[in-house]
Each structure stands twice: as C-alpha cells, then as structure tokens.
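We were asked to recover a plausible sequence for a given structure. The inputs and outputs are reproduced exactly as logged, with field labels preserved.

PROBLEM: sequence recovery
POSITIONS: 656
GIVEN STRUCTURE:
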C-alpha cells in the first residue's frame, strides 16, 4: 500500500482507500483538493466527461469520506456524473484513464464497479427517495449506519425529490441530505424553487434577529414585567419566526431540519458541520454553496459549456479560423438541424412553442430561446410537468414541441398516455439521443420506439438524414391532428451540406416508406434480401451494401421512416413474395420494437388467408440486455448493428 512517507510530495498518490484520507490535516486536505482538480482536468482532456460538476464538488467529497465510512455508511449520489472524485478516493484512480471508454470505468455510479457505490445513478432527483427507502430498511433490520443522499439544487426541483421530502418529513427517519447548491443543472436552474434557494443565500439576517430576541429575553428574565408585556414579546418572536425569510424555513415546515448555508469549498467548515450532524437521528438538510467548475478558470466562467467536455477540450494550439469553420460545418448534429428547423418554422407558425426539461444546451434549444424567448419554456428537471403542460397548451390551441432526451422521456410515460394520447392532442416530441450513447446503461435511448409505438393515437417517425428530419418536423406541425414522436440519434447529421434553410421545406408523406436501392435476386432465384431500415440505420444499411456488393450480394434498402403506422401497402407487397428474406434494422430494443411491429403485422396478414405463404422476417436491433458505456460506433458493432457486422450477418443469411 502506498503511504505518505513514500510519496511526501503528492497527497493524491497516498490515497488508495478512504482510510488514508482520514490521516490528513485540514491544510493537507486543501492541498489534496488542488491535486484532484488538476488530475480531473488532465484526465478528462484525454477521455472527455463531466468536468464542471466534478470540479465543484471536490471538498464536499473529501469531507464525506473524511467523516463517514463507506461502504458501511451509504452515500446515494443523485445523477452520479459528479462522482469522479469519489471514484478516485475509493480505489479507482488507476483506472481513470479508461473513464467512459468501452470496457473501462463508468462515468456514473455503478455498484458492480465498487462496494463504495451504494446504488446505480444516472438520472436526476432519485437520491432522496432511495435514502428514505434505505433508512426504513436500516431501521427495520436494527442496523446502525448513516444514509446520506447527495442532491443538487437542480435535482431538487424534480417532482420525485419533492415527493420524497414530503414523505421524509412525515415519517421522520434519519436521512442526511446534502444539498450541493451551484445554481445549475445542465443549464441554468429556473423556477420558483431555484429563486427560493437564491433567497436563502442572500438572507442571513434571520439568525441575527433570532439571537437578539433570545438575548433580550435573557436580559428581561430577571425583571418584573406584566403578563401583557411578556405576551407582546412572545408575539414579536412568533412573528419574526413566521414572517422573516428564514434560511431553510420551507424544509423545516415540511418537517426536515435545516443546517446552513455554508461554503462548500471550505473543507474544514464542511467537516465541522458533518461531525455535528452525523449523530443526529432526524431528517436533516445540510446546505452547501459551491461553484460549478471551481479551480479551472474556463469552467468557472462558462460552466454550461464545460458541463460535459469531449477529449482534447483544452488544445495547446487553436485551429486556424478556416479549419474551425470547416469543422463547424461538417459537425452539424441532428440536434442542430432540429433546432434550426424549429426556428424557421416559428417564422411562419405563430402558435409554435418549444419546451424542454433542463436540456436546452444539450438539445440545442438555447438558440431557439434566443430567437423566440416568449415562446420558449425551460421547465427545469420536470419531465412529467413538461409533457402535461404541452398537453394543456395543445388543448388551448398552441402547437407545442417537446424537445427531450429519449431516456428522460421514460420518466413521463404516464403523462404521455394519460394527458396527451387519450385526448389525441397534437403534441410533437423531438426525441433526442434516440439510440446508443456513450454514457452507458442509464442513458441508452433504446426503449422509445417500443414504448411509443404501444400507445394508441401516436405516430412514430425517424429520419434517414438531415433533410428528412427537417421535412418531418414541417409536415408534422403543418398537418398532424394527433401526437407525433420524431426520434434521432446523438450524432452528426447525415447529408447536412444540402440542407434547406429559411422558409423552404420539402413536403413528404411521413408515413410512407421509400425504396432507396433496388436489389437483385440471389443466385438467379426469385429471392431478394430486403432491409427495412429505420432512421439512423439507413446509413448503416447503405454502408453495409457496399461491402455486400463485393461479395456478390445486392440488397434492397427501404427507408422505413414510420414505425407507426407501418406502410402496410409496401410491406404487404414485400411479404407476398415468399422467397424474399426481410431483415428489419433499428437502433432500439428488439423486444417490442420496429421488427416486432413487422412480425405482428405479418402474423395478422397471414391470418387473413391461412394458406398464404409469406416472406420470412428477421428483426435486428439492440438485444434484450442493458448496454454499457462506450463510443456509439463501438456499441453499434457490439450489438451487431455496425455496417461491418451487418455485412457478416447478411452474408451468412444469404448462405455465403
């Protein structure tokens, strides 16, 4: 085991487990904090990852492991992307260069990775609910340990966190909630609750008034005062407590004790607070004020930009202006295309409004918000509210577009069904990050095709390229009478160079498929290999077709842009040739997805004429397991959807 004696000039080298941390003085912890920040910046420049949030939580993490003992004491991280320091301190520093790399260290919390990780964490606003559940279990089982739920002020705006606070105040269980208040989620926090948090930080005078009233009472204790005077003093004291904006009064009214706010970058003060509250047996919020991006000047100045960074985010030499421009042009993403189309549509559709649940930066909607601030609504981390609010807007005559990540839409499926679909309201869902992403199990957007197509009244679409995304959005806003989901991947858009702009839009029939490439029969037979590719899989199929031609296999490629409804007319024509071999491709779960829809239709079509012989259908998609983190191209190969893997599969399918 490494020790301080062996490495007197590097405190971080001495930390193999949290036990070594407890040997350091407060001043040494401050030095360690500086080393950790330098290590984070250095490593993320190689791997990419969540930068600003981890720089902001260094001292809190140090104090946590200094005062408490994991894994006996259970730390529940909200979201989990701010746990890099925790990973460093719990024996994973030597793997840090593999962060978010395929088969490497997860960018989030994962109990399979370490016993110090109490629960998986990838989505926001879950830690307090988990803490309540674990505290109830601890007490029932007569165990003795601390349950600590760490949550940001952004996460605290989520309905689930507020529900958990409400319950915790009622049952009065011992849960320590650490509120990491940096006024940010991914984007800047918005809403009444965030304004209240700001007032807490700005209003410290209540403590002074309370102390003065108490001092006055002490001085008056020995004096002979009439009951009426004492009643007046009690009345003033009560009014001060009720009317003055007490720090944490909202929490205390809910039955949750409050301590703070304190400087979340003063490790000594945090340790002192933790030592005071660690033996408390009541629900308590410790309010810690931090700065996102602390210690790295670019991230301090722009914590939104540096929330998540790609590798080489701090290049030594800036590319030439022409190179930057070329890179910018070639790197146009589907999110960019979607936002630009929304802005252009808003020029001609005055009732169009855009909604996002705290993902304005990631989805590119900041640009729309600047162009049409009065028609842009960031509702904070409140996915359920975003969907039902959109339903209300649509019922009242507006044309709402909800821009939301695929995995975040999962949190609002009841609202999608109950508030949008049953009323058959024209709400458009722009589902970003549809498909595989580098962030791992908690963020893989592979379930939306299956759950959206199962809901009555919905139309479910995916574009093959940039122009088709623009056209889909236009046609949907112009013609749709019910809810529509348009999903697209987290990737550079296909064919952005010929993208229309301004008020120019191409009209298409979104629910009709198109044959992109006519194949040739196999071995002189009447059998064709037909690939029904949905959305981003059109690109994979097209690339695979080039490799297949080298093997003498010429496939038919169909742009199956609509999962619901299926293009029954074209599908029946393809099924009617029993020699055809049909393969469905989707960057979504194979269970209940596009391929399943085709198989369901095939079964129903055959039942209309039991003697009919139909083509066989083989669905290809994401297998029935959770997919780990890694680059999208790597993950596509891993699940058999990369173009090289498709060449191998289809060659075998064709008997070659």
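RECOVERED SEQUENCE:
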């Amino acid at each position: 085991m490494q020790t301080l004696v062996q490495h007197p000039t590097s405190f971080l080298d001495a930390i193999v487990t949290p036990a070594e941390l407890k040997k350091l003085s407060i001043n040494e912890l401050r030095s360690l904090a500086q080393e950790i920040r330098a290590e984070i910046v250095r490593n993320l420049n190689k791997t990419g990852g969540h930068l600003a949030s981890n720089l902001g939580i260094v001292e809190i993490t140090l104090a946590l492991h200094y005062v408490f003992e994991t894994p006996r004491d259970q730390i529940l991280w909200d979201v989990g992307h701010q746990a890099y320091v925790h990973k460093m301190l719990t024996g994973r520093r030597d793997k840090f260069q593999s962060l978010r790399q395929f088969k490497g260290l997860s960018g989030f919390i994962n109990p399979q990775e370490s016993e110090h990780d109490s629960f998986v964490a990838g989505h926001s606003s879950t830690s307090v609910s988990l803490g309540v559940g674990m505290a109830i279990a601890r007490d029932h089982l007569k165990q003795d340990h601390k349950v600590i739920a760490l949550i940001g002020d952004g996460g605290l705006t989520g309905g689930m966190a507020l529900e958990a606070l409400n319950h915790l105040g009622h049952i009065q269980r011992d849960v320590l909630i650490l509120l990491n208040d940096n006024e940010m989620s991914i984007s800047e926090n918005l809403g009444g609750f965030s304004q209240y948090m700001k007032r807490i930080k700005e209003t410290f005078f209540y403590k002074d008034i309370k102390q003065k009233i108490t001092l006055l009472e002490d001085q008056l204790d020995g004096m002979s005062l009439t009951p009426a005077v004492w009643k007046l003093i009690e009345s003033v004291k009560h009014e001060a407590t009720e009317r003055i904006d007490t720090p944490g009064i909202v929490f205390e009214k809910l039955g949750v004790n409050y301590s703070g706010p304190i400087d979340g970058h003063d490790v000594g003060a945090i340790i002192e607070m933790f030592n005071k509250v660690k033996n408390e047996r009541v629900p308590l919020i410790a309010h810690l004020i931090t700065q996102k991006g602390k210690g790295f000047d670019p991230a301090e100045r722009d914590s939104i930009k540096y929330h998540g960074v790609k590798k080489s985010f701090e290049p030594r030499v800036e590319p030439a202006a022409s190179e930057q421009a070329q890179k910018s042009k070639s790197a146009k993403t589907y999110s960019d295309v979607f936002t630009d189309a929304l802005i252009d549509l808003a020029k001609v559709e005055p009732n169009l409004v855009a909604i996002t649940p705290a993902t304005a930066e990631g989805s590119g909607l900041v640009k729309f918000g600047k162009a049409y601030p009065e028609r842009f609504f960031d509702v904070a981390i409140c996915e359920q509210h975003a969907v039902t609010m959109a339903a209300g807007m649509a019922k009242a005559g507006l044309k709402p577009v909800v821009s939301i990540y695929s995995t975040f839409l999962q949190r609002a499926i009841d609202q999608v069904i109950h508030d949008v679909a049953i009323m058959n309201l024209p709400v458009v869902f722009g589902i970003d990050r549809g498909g595989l992403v580098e962030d791992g199990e908690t963020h893989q957007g592979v379930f939306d095709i299956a759950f959206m197509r199962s809901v009555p009244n919905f139309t479910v679409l995916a574009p093959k390229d940039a122009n088709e995304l623009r056209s889909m959005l236009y046609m949907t806003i112009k013609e749709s009478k019910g809810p529509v989901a348009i999903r697209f991947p987290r990737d550079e858009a296909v064919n952005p160079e010929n993208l229309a702009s301004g008020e120019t839009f191409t009209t298409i029939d979104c629910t009709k498929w198109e044959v992109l490439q006519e194949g040739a029969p196999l071995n002189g037979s009447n059998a064709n290999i037909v690939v029904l590719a949905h959305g981003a899989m059109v690109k994979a199929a097209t690339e695979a077709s080039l490799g297949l031609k080298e093997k003498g296999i010429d496939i038919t490629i169909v742009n199956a842009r609509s999962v619901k409804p299926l293009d029954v007319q074209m599908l029946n024509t393809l099924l009617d040739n029993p020699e055809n071999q049909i393969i469905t491709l989707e960057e979504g779960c194979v269970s209940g997805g596009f391929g399943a829809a085709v198989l369901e239709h095939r079964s129903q079509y055959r039942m209309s004429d039991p003697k009919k012989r139909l083509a066989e259908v083989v669905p290809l998609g994401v297998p029935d397991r959770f997919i780990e983190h890694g680059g999208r191209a790597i993950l596509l190969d891993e699940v058999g959807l990369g173009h090289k893997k498709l060449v191998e599969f289809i060659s075998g399918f064709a008997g070659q």
